[in-house]
Amino acid sequence: MKTNKKIFIVFTSTILMVFFSLITAFVTPKIVAQNIASTEEVRPGLVEEEFIYLSAPYPQCHASTIVESEQGTLLAAWFGGRHEGHANVGIWLARKTNGKWSKPVEVANGKQENGNSLPCWNPVLFRSASGTLLLFFKVGPNPERWWGEWMISNDDGITWINRQKLPNNFIGPVKNKPVELNGVILCPSSREKGNAWQIHLESLSDGGKTWATTQPLNTPEQGGTIQPSILTYPNGKLQLIARNRDAKGSLWQTWSEDHGKTWSPIKPLALPNPNSGTDAVTLKDGRQLLIYNHTNHADEKVFPRNREMLNLAVSQDGNNWTQIATLECTPTAEFSYPSIIQTKNGMVHATYTWNRRLIKHIVLDPKLF
C-alpha cells in the first residue's frame, strides 16, 4: 500500500511538472500575442517587438536598461529575483547578436563579505566615448540605504571586471543613462529619504578617478522628484525630466543653460505621471522623445490608471509635447520603468518591465512618427 502511494505521488508530481512546462511553452506566448494585437493600431513607427527571454530562474524582474556597444551589439540588463527588495535579487544581462538574445546571466549580486546578502537595484548601462561599457547598479536593503557600484567591460559585454563601490556615498545614475559632455560623464541621480525625494547630478571624469555632485535641485516642498533623464540641446542647454511621487500629478522639469553648472527652479511639465519611472532620449534630428505612463489616476474605477498604459511623446523644444503612441494598454497590468536609446543606424530601441514577469524589447523607426 505504501509503495502504491509513493508511485501515485511520483506520477502526480510528474504530471504537474509536464502541465506547467506546457503552460510556459504555449500559453504564455499566446497571451503575449493577444496583448500585442490589442495595441497595434496606436503604435506608429513600431518595426519590431519581442521578449528578451521567456523563462528565467526567478519569478520577477524589473528596471531594465539598454545600450549599444561600439561593435553594434545590443545589451540589456535588469534586476531579477524572488521579488523587488528580496535578498536574492541580482543584476541579469543578455546580449543580442545575430538577431538573437542570449540566455540571461547574473553578472552581479548582493552577497556581502559577512555572508549576508542584500538586494540589487536599478542597473544602468552606458557606453563611454572611448567605447568602454559601464554598468552601474545599486546595492542595499532599500532605496534610502542603498549605495552605488559599477563595473566595466572591454570585450563587448561578454565579461565584466573591476567591480567596486562608488566613492563617498555616490549613487551614480539612479535609473536612466548618463550623457558625456566634453569628457565628463554626467549622471542623472536622486535620493529618497522618507518623503524627501530630491534629484541631483553626479559627474565623473578621468576614468572615474574624479567624482563631483551638485546640491539637490529641488526642495521637498517643490514636489518629491526622483529618477531624472537628461535631454540635450544646442549651445550647452540641458533639460532634466523627473518622476514625481504624487500619483495624481505630473512630470517635473528643470533647465540648464551652461552645460549643467546651474539649474532653473524645478516646475511641473504638462504631462501626467502616476509616480512611475520614465526615460527620454535626444534624437539625431533634434527632436526629444519620451517614454512614460500617460496616466495619473490612482482611482480603481478609472482605466487606464497607474502603470496600465505605456506611451511615447515627442517634442521639438522640450516644453510642448505631443503624445504619439500607446505602446501598451491592458487593465490590471503593469508596463513600467522603460529605457530608451537611439542606435547608430537611427533606429530607436526601448525596453521595459512587462507585468514584472518579463522584459520586453521594441524597435521603432523615428522617420515614421
Task: Give a written overview of the molecule.
- It contains one helix and 25 strands.
- With 369 residues, the protein is mainly β.
- It folds into two domains: 1-37; 45-368, Neuraminidase (6 Propeller).
- The termini are far apart.
- The longest helix has 36 residues, at 2-37.
- The chain is globular, with a radius of gyration of 21 Å.
- Strands 2, 3, 4, 5 and 6 form a five-stranded antiparallel sheet that branches. Strands 1-25-24-23 form a four-stranded antiparallel sheet, with no helix packed on it.
Topology record:
Elements lengths: L1 H36 L8 E6 L8 E9 L5 E8 L8 E8 L2 E2 L3 E4 L11 E8 L5 E7 L7 E7 L7 E5 L13 E3 L2 E10 L2 E10 L4 E4 L11 E8 L5 E7 L4 E8 L10 E7 L5 E4 L5 E5 L16 E7 L5 E9 L5 E8 L5 E7 L3 E7 L5
Antiparallel strand pairs: 1-25, 2-3, 3-4, 4-5, 4-6, 7-8, 8-9, 9-10, 11-12, 12-13, 13-14, 15-16, 16-17, 17-18, 19-20, 20-21, 21-22, 23-24, 24-25
- Give the helix tally: 1
- Count up the domains: 2
**Helix-strand makeup class:** mainly beta
CATH topology tier name of the largest domain: Neuraminidase
> Which segments are poorly predicted (pLDDT under 50) over 5 or more consecutive residues?
1-40
In short:
The protein is built from one helix and 25 strands. With 369 residues, it is mainly beta.
Supply database-style keywords.
369 residues; mainly beta; Neuraminidase; 2 domains; four-stranded antiparallel sheet; 1 helix; 10% helix; globular; disordered N terminus
